[in-house]
Write a structure and sequence with these properties.
Blueprint lengths: L1 H11 L3 H5 L26 E2 L26 E4 L2 E4 H15 L3 H9 L3 H12 L6 E5 L5 H8 L4 E6 L2 H13 L6 E5 L12 E7 L8 H11 E12 L5 H23 L2 H13 L3 H10 L3 E8 L4 E7 L2
Parallel strand pairs: 1-6, 4-5, 4-7, 5-6, 7-8
Antiparallel strand pairs: 2-3, 8-10, 9-10
Helix pairs in contact: 4-9, 9-10
Length: about 325
């Protein structure tokens, strides 16, 4: 256990006192006053909606069909390419299948390692506590969920469309002796397999720019939040300073794919990831989309000169 604790401290920068919080998650079976109990889905060693992990809870909603099963008409952007919506879903899944085992390395390469500071700031704004029911969308490798648990949270559903990412997250949790508190669910951000109004907070880090129809994902975020629930999104964004923007573009399009090829063997995946950032709405436009989805008190704060931004909103 000491070795695990030291390893975890080194990766996440946590003190022993921080690590002691959030590990006693085994006996949390009581239903909250509002009636929805995350812990009815607390089978940690399985990933939902996947025969590979053998556990399929009855959480689907008939009117929310998968976009892959019933794709809407029209096109979607896959980086700088226009593809069908069905094709984008498949292509994005293929990218993350490829990089799942090196996902942290990918984020380190794309942010110079600063993504760890950005995530720490996201968790600070979230203010985890033992009563909070959190949905972490697109967080398959568990990075946000682990931080949430270490800061005092006790109930998190990690939902990701990619089973390879979820498998990595589950294995990391076992490696770090985190044996409770997280439920691993394979699901689409545009059709979350969760009931209406079940979450106190919805968090997404570096996910929403990859969804096929962003407006659908934002509508789903509002749907699953309770009144008073908090929406937080950490995403790569539009660099504010022109000089920094030129340097970041040069790095993203000329250097990053070469490093990505050397580290992961997939140059095209890193090219897509760089292009997807440029196709994602800028800070103000994204804030307007969040408002249009029915969330209130929308604000955003740039991180590292706008290389990333945190958008915050509330369901009133």
């Amino acid at each position: 256990m000491g070795k695990i604790r030291r390893h975890f401290d080194a990766q996440f920068g946590l003190a022993d006192d921080d690590l002691d919080q959030g590990l006693a998650h085994e006996d949390r079976g009581n239903s909250p006053a509002d009636g929805f109990n995350f812990w009815q889905f607390r089978h940690f060693n399985t990933v939902a909606v996947s025969d590979k992990f053998g556990y399929v809870p009855d959480m689907s909603r008939e009117k929310n069909q998968s976009i892959e099963d019933n794709p809407p008409s029209g096109k979607a952007s896959f980086g700088f390419r226009n593809v069908t919506r069905r094709e984008k879903t498949r292509l994005v899944r293929d990218v993350f299948d490829t990089v799942a085992n090196r996902y942290d390395v990918m984020n380190d390469l794309m942010s110079g390692g600063v993504h760890r500071l950005w995530k720490a700031e996201l968790i600070r704004r979230l203010r985890p506590d033992g009563d909070m029911a959190l949905i972490d969308v697109g967080g398959g490798t568990g990075d946000i969920a682990f931080r949430f648990l270490k800061r005092g949270g006790e109930n998190v559903v990690v939902c990701d469309i990619n089973t390879e990412m979820l498998s990595v997250g589950r294995d990391r949790a076992l490696d770090h002796a985190i044996l409770g508190g997280a439920v691993w669910v394979c699901g689409d951000a545009e059709a979350l397999p969760l009931p209406d109004g079940c979450a106190d907070a919805y968090v997404s880090a570096f996910c929403l720019r990859n969804v096929t129809t962003l407006t659908n994902a934002l509508s789903e975020a509002r749907r699953v939040l309770k009144p008073g629930g908090h929406f937080l999104c950490l995403e790569f964004s539009s660099v504010a300073a022109p000089v920094l923007s030129k340097l970041y573009d040069a790095y993203s399009f000329n250097v990053l794919p070469i490093i990505g090829q050397a580290v992961t063997g997939n140059k095209d995946a890193y090219r897509y990831l760089a292009e997807s950032i440029r196709r994602f709405p800028g800070q103000r436009d994204f804030a307007e989309m969040i408002k249009d989805a029915g969330l209130d008190n929308v604000r955003y704060d740039n991180l590292s000169g706008g290389i990333a931004a945190i958008h915050s909103a509330w369901r009133i």
